[in-house]
Amino acid sequence: MSEETSSQPRTAWSDDLLWALSVFDTAVLLLDGELRITHANAAAHALAARVDPAHPDPSVLLRQLPAEAWAPACTIGRWRGEVATASGVVLQVAAYCGQRGNEMRRFVVLDDVTARVAREHELTSRHDELERTYRRLASTQEQLLQTEKMASIGQLAAGVAHEINNPIGYVHSNLGTLRDYASALISLVEAYGRELGTEHPASAHLQQMRERLDIDFIVGDLPQLLDESREGIERVTKIVQDLKEFSHVGRDEPVRAVDLHKGLDSTLNIVWNDLKYKVRLEKHYGEIPPVECHPSELNQVFMNLLINAGQSIAERGTITLATGVDNEEVWVSIADSGCGIPDESLARIFDPFYTTKPIGRGTGLGLAICYGIVAKHHGRIEVSSRLGFGSTFRVVLPVQQPRPGQPGA
């Protein structure tokens, strides 16, 4: 309602005030005690036209106020707030209420802050994007540090393995020679006994000495001890070889076709000492072709998944390794019968720094690094889990890496 149709006398507001309001750039509505508009300045008419071009009446501005605005306005004298209109215009509104004698005075001040709100939203959006970019950079830096650490450990392990190889080699050779010498000496002792016979004067003394030294037991046990020692050295040799294969660092080397079964078994050999006391291992290997990859990087993936599987088992459980091929993709599955992963955590397990492990047991980078390595190989990791029953991680890789110029390369 405009001032010309006001039901209140013009004398309710002074002419000087009305003149002053007419030159304001801010929209002002003067109201009577029954919330009827008694005056609207030119800025209010212009603002009403922006809010509702089809019905550019100042009353459209008054209708934007929420009904609950007047209670605090009349209690403490004013109410402030922002209101988004149906037309997209955002209004900053201040409602004032006061008593003059027996007459209730109210007025509303409105300002179009659409542009300011849009800028604030844009700044907030840019800030959020910067925050996300910062977090991505921080996680990438942490992964690079972890990768460098793994590379350093790999070089150290490879050097140690190389140094261990030499003494292991001659110990293994000496045990073989020692077994031959022991067999020869035992044969000679047995021959002496047969040649002397029971009638020889020294035979009784020799028989007593044979019994006292338990020569019969030694003759039977010595070859077995040497065989077990040689098997132990061969076991150490295998571990050293697996360690060299696992820690082989060749970041700039091209991918090569490798047997994933060999890499999986080598990695299992490295971590088995942490698993053997509580894990029963099952293998269900299928026939799979050689896969083009960086084998040391995939060994790191297998190691992380095997360690996680072992840590999810509290006392006794089963880890099942399975492999297979689907069309042009090979898959490796590592399943455990451990505690499982809660549904609310399942979507975040590959996020850097996210971990459900106690403080000191996990950094939240293991699975993130696995995800990055598999993605680098143009593969994927599929996860299924049931709380209290265990989890299955399935690494799916292309048999051949895309060539430059091919889709996905």
What does this structure look like?
The protein has helices at residues 15-22, 42-51, 59-62, 70-76, 114-196, 203-212, 215-246, 260-275, 295-311, 343-346, 366-376; strands at 27-31, 37-40, 78-84, 90-100, 103-112, 256-258, 279-284, 291-293, 317-326, 329-336, 380-386, 390-398. The protein is built from 11 helices and 12 strands. The strands form 3 sheets. The protein has a 5-stranded antiparallel beta sheet with strand order 2-1-5-4-3, with helices on both faces. The protein has a 5-stranded mixed beta sheet with strand order 7-9-10-12-11, covered by helices on one side. The chain has 3 domains: 3-112, PAS domain (Beta-Lactamase, 2-Layer Sandwich), CATH 3.30.450.20; 137-249; 252-409, Histidine kinase-like ATPase, C-terminal domain (Heat Shock Protein 90, 2-Layer Sandwich). Helix content is 49%, strand content 20%. By secondary structure, the chain is an alpha+beta fold. A hairpin with a 5-residue loop joins strand 3 and strand 4 (90-100).
Kindly summarize this structure in a few lines.
It catalyses: ATP + protein L-histidine = ADP + protein N-phospho-L-histidine. With 409 residues, this protein is an alpha+beta fold.
CATH class value of the largest domain: Alpha Beta
- Report mean pLDDT, rounded to a whole number: 79
**How large, in whole angstroms, is the Cα Rg?**
42 Å
Q: What amount of the residues lies in strands?
A: 15-25%
Give unreliable regions as ranges.
1-11, 359-363
The strand count comes to 12
What string gives the helices and strands in order? HEEHHHEEEHHHEHEEHEEHHEE
In CATH, the architecture of the largest domain is 2-Layer Sandwich
Structural class: alpha+beta
